[in-house]
């Protein structure tokens, strides 16, 4: 069965929101897929990085709810490879922020299964910043 | 002694003490004094990437104001090059510095916000210690100071992300860097190729449920190093070090065929090569590098 | 004097913003104006008709058209007035579209006011104008063609067949260019060297073509009809006419070096035949590879040469030529794949570029396997093209098709092999291309939509691992290939860049040589008498290259055929009654067009019309036709008339080639800048003397800006220095009168610096506002200031 995506005002709004928050022109993406096979995390993602761009272009909510945006490690490999000069790392950050700004955290600090003091400070600070603020 | 302002960052006072100790000793051995900022605050570890996150730049910029103050108060003589050791701090500080100095309005807003402190004037240049070695000291000079060349030690450089990317922040070509290789050669060691030398180690996924992502990367990176004959790996980031070193335990649990390999801060090898073995802090590494270093004759031999 | 003024609506482009009726009414109150009309499209047949009819009916002798940019329609109206029997110089355009309606579209009242002033400036300009005689130049029939690829070959043959005298200069030892290296050509798959060799032979034999291979153009001076060219012919140490290409010398030569014709995949000797189809068909001795000539270290080759063709004492030759026109056909280089280290070119054994694949296939066809290619082969498209990371935003236009061709050839050789093409967009736009793409698909070539981020080498098998997102299934696919071919793009050749700099040819953003007009003058360069053909102008296939080469030849012929050429009438002239023969202007002219025999004389064939000499004359004896001091100052006066207290007006002098075009571009892009800027078009801002600047302030200017081409693209040498000097003198005078010196500013521009233009225009106004009005008595003091000539 083929899924039909009925495009409406909300699609337009979401695309615009992502553009605004990321500061990137997402319509520039030509869907070459270079980001995907540059991404060290792509294998663990439910939507490929190029897919993140495509969903963002059409303003499909599923990208906001995807796991992929949390798997992205802000490594900037896509950023230095994209032939259109898009900073996908910023797009992924914008998508995370869309969640975080709804007052939901991606991890619960109280349930970290490893003693916080075993981890380097930098790991904890960066994880908390990316997943909770 | 040439004095430079130095920003340690949180982790160098915690799990990466051996990084700081070996760096300070090595720097001193080549005539550089790292003068720690008298007051500093956490830079935030990662940059916020959304277009509206201007307040996130305040923390990094505060640290740069300290450099200005050190010069104003005579602690430094017209030295605005701030040295960092941790690659992540380097990346965050440099990026914020670039963003605010390139945008007069933003700089103004931030200065307004920090109204009880002097204005940041955009005069500071954020540099990584490796850059100082390459561009200020020069690898040739470094080579000349080496007392104990790391002859025949096969070293796999691991750059990770934040030394190289994004391009405008990176200290070398994002795709074909050479700075670590040249550093290794200056110490008399042999740099071995590692196709994954700038593959992300999984970074902060080491916290929480996705640790396995990190362990898989560790497996890949260390195996490639081994395949190319490496004895040890070097890095310049305390988070990469934790992931590549401490997470070998988890890696081994997941892949019983996996074999341990020592992971060191570049400054630890530098300290050894410069004859400052006692400051190398080798006892703090998770996978103990001492057996192999001793076996190769780099430890405990008086010059 | 009876002037007709015509205000154009431009079908709303102007009239939606500017109140054209008000402008017309205003024009009707200006001196000497006899007829005023406002018309929907002035450039249309009926608009031109109105001018012609009015000239005849009302005996008008001068015309002003308030419409668009004179760069756009200037020629149209010159022709129209000429039809009505007036001298073509008797029309001036006021640019109220690009300079008012468009950039000031959101402030219609200011736009209307500015349009009035621009119209008044044009009226004052035309009131001073006199008919100007044509300036013609004798043209000979000599052409220099630089570059002996297929473009240069085709252009040379066309010209030579039409009876023109061609000097063809090629830097390599053989002509043929890249086409000589190709296997077969898309979309017809005919053998490349088979169709090229006969043409190369024709070049060698043609009595009207003087072929100089292994040669370089060292220097070009002069201008159309009179280019002086200096050429270096490097020593080949083998006499082309005597050599029989018997190959005996090569056989005995002990030195082997990589063969550039095969991109270093095979070796050649120090004395060698550049390729099997080389023209001239003669061996050449590579002095860098040879064991030693001075003193002779080996000498084996000359011992075996029966034709006695080898001469170890050969010397470089310098040849001076005088030619009338030049065709640049210096071609391209392939993108250097090292610049994408993630693809492992020359690091992974089994990653090669497409030109190497061409050579492998040619050699295979001749029975030489110069490297193994294995079975499964992948092509990666757009390497070095369409890639912001390497700064090449353009599509190279041929790589989709050459990959399709090479894939098809490989598949035909061995249908059992798997051939994949990884692409983003497949571009098959040319005649027969789409059909050819279909043929490849019929042969079983697999086209996968996705580009890999990086390649990896399998450590054991040395196969290349391609991981790519198939963007149509959204799945990552991974496959090992025996060979990966990088479909590298085309970049401006090193030789092209060098020649462009030497001839002062501007290059477009992609780095290739820029045409004079992208649509209507596609093979002309902005420099009169110099044409461009083939890949020097941009990436293209062989059919387009050949078409362009023939077009360039035809354009060159059309200039030379008449035997004379009508030059731009903008030339310096001397008021003999004022000149005392001091000779200061001789020094000032960058192209040596002035000599003094009693009084100064201008050689109009050489004068480029920059006007740089004008400010050098202490007696104001030199001036410029069409842009004379009087004509320019009449516009300045009109621009400053009726200025209200507190109002600010900035005069901007804009050189025609860069700044004026840039201002048009800014207007066309509807970018806003302050409407108090009044632009006066000059050939070069170096013709604006310090006195003129100071007089403008005396008359009420609040700031003066001079825009000029950046040196690298300027049609005139060294004008920026003159401007700097003039500005310095004018500023000194301002300072002496107590006026802020930095009210005079200047800047170099190229035509795409939109942001810089807007920023500088706005800055001028902000500064004038900051400094406030210049008191009347200071302006009056300026009237007493004189230029002080240093030294
Ligand atoms: C891999 C590959 C496959 C291709 N396959 C096809 C195909 O199948 N079909 C097709 O239609 N097209 C094909 N092309 C395109 C084709 O090669 C070009 O269209 C054609 O070669 C352009 O000719 P040109 O004369 O403009 O440039 P070039 O072939 O580059 O010739 C320029 C010449 O000028 C000389 N020169 C450069 N600078 C100077 C200087 N300063 N002084 C003197 N001489 C100088 C050079 O040595 C060279 O001989 C292919 C291109 C490539 C790279
Ligand atoms: S690399 Fe850039 S253009 Fe290509 S798919 Fe990813 S974001 Fe889009
Ligand atoms: S920044 Fe995120 S999406 Fe981009 S390559 Fe790194 S992990 Fe993948
Ligand atoms: S022709 Fe094809 S391969 Fe070449 S740059 Fe254009 S799209 Fe890419
Ligand atoms: S300076 Fe310019 S205008 Fe004057 S004679 Fe020379 S080329 Fe002609």
Structure write-up:
The complex is a heterotrimer of chains A (133), B (303) and C (791). Chain A has helices spanning 9-22, 34-38, 49-58, 68-71, 77-81, 88-100, 121-132. By secondary structure, chain A is an all-alpha fold. Chain A is globular and about 45 Å long. Chain A folds into two domains: 9-101, Alpha-helical ferredoxin (Fumarate Reductase Iron-sulfur Protein, Chain B, domain 2); 105-133, no CATH class. With 303 residues, chain B is α/β, with parallel strands linked by helices. Chain B has two domains: 2-129, Glutathione S-transferase Yfyf (Class Pi), Chain A, domain 2; 140-295, Rossmann fold, CATH 3.40.50.11810. In chain B, strands 2-1-3-4 form a four-stranded parallel sheet. In chain B, strand 5, helix 7 and strand 6 (190-191) form a beta-alpha-beta unit. Chain B is globular and about 55 Å long. The two termini of chain B are 24 Å apart. The mean pLDDT of chain B is 95. By secondary structure, chain C is of the alpha/beta class. Chain C is built from 21 helices and 38 strands. Chains in contact: A-B, A-C, B-C. Chain B binds chain C through residues 173, 175-176, 195, 227, and chain C through 340-342, 456-457, 459. Residues 38-39, 41, 49, 72-78, 88-89, 92 of chain A line the site of one iron/sulfur cluster.
What is the helix/strand order of chain A? Answer: HHHHHHH
Specify the biggest β-sheet of chain A. Answer: none
**CATH class designation of the largest domain in chain C:** Alpha Beta
CATH topology description of the largest domain in chain A:
Fumarate Reductase Iron-sulfur Protein, Chain B, domain 2
What global shape of chain C is seen? Answer: globular
Order of adjacent strands in the largest pleated sheet of chain C: 10-7-6-18-29
**End-to-end Cα distance of chain A:** 39 Å
Which structural category fits the helices and strands of chain C?
alpha/beta
The gyration radius over C-alpha positions of chain C equals 31 Å
Query: What is the CATH level 1 assignment of the largest domain in chain A?
Result: Mainly Alpha
Q: What would the CATH topology of the largest domain in chain C be?
A: FAD/NAD(P)-binding domain
For the record, the count of structural domains of chain A works out to 2
CATH architecture of the largest domain in chain A: Orthogonal Bundle
Query: What is the number of strand segments of chain A?
Result: 0
Low-confidence stretches of chain C: none
How much of the sequence lies in strands of chain C comes to: 15-25%
């Amino acid at each position: 069965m083929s899924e039909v995506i009925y495009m409406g005002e909300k699609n337009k709004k979401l695309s615009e929101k992502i553009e605004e928050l990321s500061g990137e022109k997402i319509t520039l993406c030509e869907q070459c897929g270079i980001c995907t096979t540059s991404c060290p995390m792509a294998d663990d993602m439910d939507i490929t990085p190029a897919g993140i761009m495509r969903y963002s272009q059409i303003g499909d909510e599923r990208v906001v709810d995807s796991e992929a945006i949390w798997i992205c490690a802000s490594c900037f490999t896509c950023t230095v490879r994209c032939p259109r000069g898009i900073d996908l790392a910023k797009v992924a950050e914008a998508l995370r922020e869309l969640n975080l700004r709804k007052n939901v955290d991606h991890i619960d600090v109280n349930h970290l299964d490893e003693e916080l003091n075993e981890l380097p400070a930098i790991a904890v600070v960066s994880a908390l910043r990316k997943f909770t603020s | 002694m040439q004095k430079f302002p130095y920003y340690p960052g949180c982790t160098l006072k915690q799990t990466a003490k051996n990084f700081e100790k070996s760096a300070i000793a090595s720097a001193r051995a080549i005539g550089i004094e790292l003068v720690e900022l008298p007051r500093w605050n956490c830079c935030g570890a990662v940059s916020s990437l959304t277009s509206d996150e201007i307040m996130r730049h305040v923390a990094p910029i505060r640290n740069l104001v300290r450099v200005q103050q050190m010069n104003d108060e005579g602690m430094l003589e017209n030295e605005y090059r701030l040295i960092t050791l941790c690659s992540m701090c380097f990346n965050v500080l440099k990026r914020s510095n670039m963003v605010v100095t390139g945008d007069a309005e933003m700089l103004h807003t931030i200065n307004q916000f920090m109204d009880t402190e002097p204005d940041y004037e955009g005069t500071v240049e954020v540099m990584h210690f490796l850059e100082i070695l390459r561009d200020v000291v020069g690898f040739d000079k470094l080579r000349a100071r080496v007392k104990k060349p790391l002859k025949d030690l096969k070293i796999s450089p691991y750059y990770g992300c934040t030394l190289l990317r994004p391009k405008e922040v990176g200290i070398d070509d994002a795709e074909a860097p050479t700075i670590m290789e040249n550093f290794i050669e200056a110490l008399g060691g042999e740099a071995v190729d590692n196709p994954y030398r700038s593959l992300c180690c999984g970074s902060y996924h080491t916290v929480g449920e996705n640790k396995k992502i990190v362990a898989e990367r560790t497996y890949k990176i260390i195996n490639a190093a081994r395949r190319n004959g490496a004895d040890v790996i070097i890095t310049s980031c305390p988070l990469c070090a934790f992931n590549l070193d401490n997470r070998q335990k988890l890696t081994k649990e997941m892949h019983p065929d996996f074999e341990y390999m020592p992971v060191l801060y570049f400054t630890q090898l530098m300290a050894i090569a410069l004859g400052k073995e006692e400051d190398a802090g080798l006892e703090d590494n998770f996978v103990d590098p001492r057996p192999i270093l001793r076996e190769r004759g780099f430890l405990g031999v008086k010059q | 004097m009876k002037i007709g003024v015509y205000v154009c609506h431009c079908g709303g482009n102007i009239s939606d913003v500017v109140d054209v009726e008000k402008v017309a009414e205003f024009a009707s109150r200006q001196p000497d104006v006899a007829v005023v009309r406002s018309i929907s499209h002035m450039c249309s047949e009926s608009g031109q008709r109105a001018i012609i009819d009015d000239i005849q009916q009302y005996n008008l002798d001068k015309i002003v058209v308030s419409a668009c940019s004179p760069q756009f329609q200037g020629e149209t109206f010159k022709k129209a007035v000429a039809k009505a029997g007036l001298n073509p110089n008797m029309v001036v355009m006021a640019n109220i579209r690009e300079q008012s309606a468009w950039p000031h579209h959101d402030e219609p009242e200011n736009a209307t006011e500015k349009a009035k002033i621009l119209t008044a400036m044009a009226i004052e300009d035309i009131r001073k104008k006199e008919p100007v005689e044509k300036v013609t130049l004798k043209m000979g029939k000599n052409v220099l063609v630089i570059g002996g690829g297929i473009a240069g070959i085709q252009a040379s043959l066309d010209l030579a067949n039409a009876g023109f005298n061609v000097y063809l200069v090629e830097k390599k030892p053989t002509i043929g260019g890249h086409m000589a290296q190709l296997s077969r050509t898309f979309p017809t798959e005919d053998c490349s060297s088979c169709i090229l060799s006969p043409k190369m032979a024709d070049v060698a034999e043609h009595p009207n073509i003087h072929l100089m291979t292994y040669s370089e153009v060292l220097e070009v001076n002069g201008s159309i009809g009179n280019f002086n060219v200096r050429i270096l012919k490097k020593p080949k140490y083998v006499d082309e006419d005597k050599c029989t290409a018997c190959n005996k010398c090569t056989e005995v030569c002990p030195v082997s070096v990589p063969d550039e014709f095969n991109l270093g995949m095979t070796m050649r000797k120090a004395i060698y035949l550049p390729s099997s189809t080389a023209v001239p068909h003669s061996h050449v001795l590579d002095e860098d590879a040879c064991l030693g000539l001075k003193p002779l270290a080996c000498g084996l080759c000359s011992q075996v040469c029966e034709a006695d063709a080898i001469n170890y004492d050969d010397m470089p030759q310098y040849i001076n030529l005088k030619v009338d026109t030049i065709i640049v056909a210096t071609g391209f280089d392939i993108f250097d794949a090292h610049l994408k280290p993630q693809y492992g070119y020359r690091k992974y054994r089994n990653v090669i570029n497409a030109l190497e694949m061409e050579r492998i296939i040619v050699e295979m066809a001749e029975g030489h396997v110069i490297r193994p290619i294995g079975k499964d082969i992948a092509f990666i498209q757009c390497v070095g093209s369409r890639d912001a990371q390497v700064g090449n935003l353009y599509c190279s236009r041929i790589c989709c098709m050459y990959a399709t061709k090479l894939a098809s050839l490989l598949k035909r050789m061995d249908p059992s092999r798997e051939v994949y093409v990884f692409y983003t967009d497949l571009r098959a736009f040319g005649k027969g291309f789409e059909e050819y793409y279909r043929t490849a698909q019929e042969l079983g070539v697999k086209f996968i939509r996705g580009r890999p981020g990086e390649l990896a080498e399998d450590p054991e098998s040395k196969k290349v691992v391609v991981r790519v997102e198939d963007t149509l299934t959204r799945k990552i696919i991974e496959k090992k290939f025996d060979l990966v071919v990088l479909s590298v793009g085309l970049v401006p050749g090193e030789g092209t860049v060098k020649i462009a700099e030497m001839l002062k040819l501007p290059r477009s953003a992609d780095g290739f040589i820029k045409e004079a007009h992208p649509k209507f003058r596609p093979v002309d360069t902005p420099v009169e008498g110099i044409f461009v053909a083939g890949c020097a102008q941009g990436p293209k296939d062989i059919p387009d290259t050949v078409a362009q080469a023939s077009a360039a030849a035809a354009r060159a012929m059309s200039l030379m055929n008449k035997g004379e050429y009508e030059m731009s009438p903008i030339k310096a002239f001397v008021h003999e009654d004022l000149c005392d023969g001091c000779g200061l202007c001789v020094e000032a002219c960058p192209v040596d067009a002035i000599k003094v025999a009693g009084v100064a004389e201008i050689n109009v064939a050489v004068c480029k019309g920059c006007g740089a000499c004008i400010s050098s004359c202490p007696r104001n004896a030199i001036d410029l036709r069409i842009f004379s001091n009087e004509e320019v100052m009449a516009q300045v006066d009109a621009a400053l008339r009726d200025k209200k207290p507190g109002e600010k007006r900035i005069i901007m002098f804009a050189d025609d080639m860069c700044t004026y075009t840039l201002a048009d571009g800014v207007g066309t892009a509807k970018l806003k800048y302050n409407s108090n800027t009044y632009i006066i078009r000059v050939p070069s801002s170096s013709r604006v003397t310090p006195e003129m600047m100071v007089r403008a302030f005396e008359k009420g200017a609040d700031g003066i800006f001079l825009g000029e081409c950046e040196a690298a693209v300027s049609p005139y040498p060294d004008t920026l220095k003159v401007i700097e000097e003039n500005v310095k003198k004018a500023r000194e005078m301002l300072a002496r009168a107590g006026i802020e010196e930095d009210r005079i500013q200047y800047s170099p521009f190229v035509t795409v610096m939109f942001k810089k233009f807007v920023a500088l225009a706005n800055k001028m106004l902000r500064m004038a506002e900051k400094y406030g009005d210049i008191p009347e008595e200071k302006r009056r003091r300026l009237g007493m200031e004189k230029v002080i000539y240093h030294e």
